[in-house]
């Protein structure tokens, strides 16, 4: 990269950072294994504009959860963040703060809902007690107010608040736990919320209602939400912007409707084709070839999608495409944009 | 051919401080699956669709009603004959991470049943090997690379294929696919659905497809019948495409509305509505319509009388105020 | 025939024969992965060899040397001598067979009774479960050591088989309970249900599907009950409640404390410490080796990458 371009990007970076709740740059995470380091997240730049919902799509094993953990600087061993910066509201680099400060930010400013909400709740304590624990950990003075707020949120989420507060996690159904998880992420007034596969274990109706609630709360509190899932349907429904994540890198990003209407990357195209739809020709649906990325994929030299790509050429095997702008803020990392699948 | 007549199932649930509670899990279900045919059961979790599947393959005994496989009522058979007949119906488990023994290689699993089959057919070890090879290839796996693997080395999609291959070793006439794709990455789901469709079309294996996702039901059996189940009762049935385009029961409409909309490709149906109230097993058996407590179009009679499944407009529905609503997403 | 997802490369299929040795290979790999495991394994092998070949190394009556009673540690007597001037090392080596054989048999009985009864009770819930568990409770309630003391007055424990049987009989209860509870949870798992659906026999389900899933637990229990059994029998001999037919570690301890007065006279100390050292070393070996057992039986942990 030449000097001038560095200056340029730096300038645009400055302009944007005011509007960005989170602006992560050049994130790299490696996993140490006996056979060598595996780059689980590579050179990822990601912006979460204030008051928007961003969807991050990735298959299992694509490193999408690692990315979220890296943004919160909560990567656990054997993973390690090797470089990057995460600016919170244009200041405070999350990756450089003291661990005590980070802990306070997590929870107070950033909320997080785990994929398996049942695993993130303590099975031996009632939900109400856990809220109090959380409050004490974050030095909340007025615990009564906290409980009242939790109640309000639970009612807002369509639950019987008093009953839920007095329950243990095993007394709640999957959908209820997921809602309780959302309440936990919001009870300390976080305005940035990460949702990791929050609807995956739910069936259609609960999923639809949880999505509806997320959407309403987001509008009401002007939350910034990053929703991580392998389910392109859910993300397409919920998010305004979409990031397609494959084997540790972003391969396509842009406005959801635009990316879905005219996907440029063969992986995105494949994903959209691979979901059975409620309308249109059912025989147009086509399974995605190959298997999900594994540790070998991460070590590949050329394009990460090479072995599953229907439009690959030899050069794709040797060098890796970078994320380039194709149309306004629609970016794609592919050498063969526009090439026909049938070639 | 498999027929179910007036199938009922009651479960006793231990309540904390009171007497045992009875849950009516399956209510008078009738259905017929011709050989090589398919049928889709739709409903949310807890609606009894899984129980129907489990009763069909003998894992659960019906409280009343009969299951007739190839003209024989399984409840009237002796134990041995019953087990033999039930082998024609194989259940594909919902959770591919649970259904394979973690301590066995794929080869050991396939061999366990194939050995038994070989004994019955008086075949030798070569036959076992050939059959194993053939079946794994049939489900789209490469025997060479997969036979020596343990389940944890496989992805969810591969596991589900192994499970299907293993079920095929006993030469079933019907597969019960209970939420087979719900635990698998969306990108790999279609492959499994395509495999099931292929087994039905080319190998004449009939399929009972149990799911909460109408889109995959549509993919698997758009030419067959769709049964919508709520609290153990069939509340709407008809040809899949017709039910999706012209749903009459509000519950079916709620399910269709709940399908995520693919922005940029689809637009929501004009009558779309989302139900936010949770599914709840009611404490006492309601007199009226089972869906009345969640129905946005409920009227007073719905609490008093229960509608029955009646024929109308090429389909069946159980609603006093059926009204076709356009709730399914449409492509742009 | 076209398949829905055509397999990319359909080579001629030549299956490698599945050979039973792969388990041992994998087991060897998991043992050699850590130095501590190798040490543990080496200690166990050493004691096993001692038990097998020890008595052949010496004449049936160990040489007595009246000039070297309670001799200090030297090259000739690496662990000193006893009240008759017999080498303590020779006593330890020749005594190992009875101690180890009885302990191994005891542990084996424990594991076999415990596993089979636990599996059956857990899988065929109902009357068989109730009966087996009542018997288990009975054995769990009777305090095993006093029972051993009482039994030893009636029985002749000259042969290690008798000793092992008694040790096994008194200690399988806990094992049966643990295996039963694991079986109870495993029988609800999808793969057991699937095996039932495929029409596999209950025998197959119990011993081929469920047993391998509790095998690492059983393996670990086998090893820990060996140490338990050793303590129990050595304790019996130490207390002197069992007639001394044979030379063994427990007898040495008894003699050292009650006859030689090792607690007060320092010259007899090696006589007391040498069987203790042997016990300590063997326990250490087993503890170090235990670490490898889980990995040996669990294919997920056995993997290289």
UniProtKB/TrEMBL annotation, chain A:
Superkingdom as given in the UniProt entry: Bacteria
Domain ABC transporter: 24-272
Protein name: Peptide/nickel transport system ATP-binding protein
MF terms in GO: ATP binding; ATP hydrolysis activity
Family label: Belongs to the ABC transporter superfamily.
Keyword field: ATP-binding, Nucleotide-binding, Transport
Record-linked CDD domains: ABC_NikE_OppD_transporters (cd03257)
One family name in Pfam for this protein: ABC_tran
Listed PANTHER family: MALTOSE ABC TRANSPORTER, ATP-BINDING PROTEIN (PTHR43067:SF3), OLIGOPEPTIDE/DIPEPTIDE ABC TRANSPORTER, ATPASE SUBUNIT (PTHR43067)
GO biological process, one term: peptide transport
NCBIfam families reported in the protein's UniProt record: oligo_HPY
InterPro entries membership: AAA+_ATPase, ABC_transporter-like_ATP-bd, Oligopep_ABC_C, P-loop_NTPase
TrEMBL record, chain B:
Record family assignment: Belongs to the ABC transporter superfamily.
Keyword Ribosomal protein part of the UniProt annotation: no
InterPro entries with a match to the protein in the record: AAA+_ATPase (IPR003593), ABC_transporter-like_ATP-bd (IPR003439), ABC_transporter-like_CS (IPR017871), Oligopep_ABC_C (IPR013563), P-loop_NTPase (IPR027417)
Keyword hit for Cell wall biogenesis/degradation: no
CDD domains given in the database record: ABC_NikE_OppD_transporters
Full protein name: Peptide/nickel transport system ATP-binding protein
One GO MF term attached to the UniProt entry: ATP binding
GO biological process: peptide transport
Alphabetical keyword list: ATP-binding, Nucleotide-binding, Transport
Segments forming domain ABC transporter: 2-256
Gene3D superfamilies attached to this UniProt entry: P-loop containing nucleotide triphosphate hydrolases
UniProtKB/TrEMBL annotation, chain C:
Domain of life where this protein originates: Bacteria
Topology within the bilayer: Multi-pass membrane protein
Signal peptide: none
Keywords: Cell membrane, Membrane, Peptide transport, Protein transport, Transmembrane, Transmembrane helix, Transport
ABC transmembrane type-1 domain span: 100-290
GO process annotations (BP): peptide transport; protein transport; transmembrane transport
Keyword 4Fe-4S: no
A GO cellular-component term linked to this record: plasma membrane
Keyword Cell membrane: yes
InterPro entries linked to this entry: BP-dependent_transpt_permease (IPR050366), MetI-like (IPR000515), MetI-like_sf (IPR035906), OppC_N (IPR025966)
Family: Belongs to the binding-protein-dependent transport system permease family. OppBC subfamily.
PANTHER family linked to this entry: OLIGOPEPTIDE TRANSPORT SYSTEM PERMEASE PROTEIN AMID (PTHR43386:SF24), OLIGOPEPTIDE TRANSPORT SYSTEM PERMEASE PROTEIN APPC (PTHR43386)
Protein name as catalogued: Peptide/nickel transport system permease protein
Organism listed in the record: Sporolactobacillus nakayamae
Organism classification: Bacteria, Bacillati, Bacillota, Bacilli, Bacillales
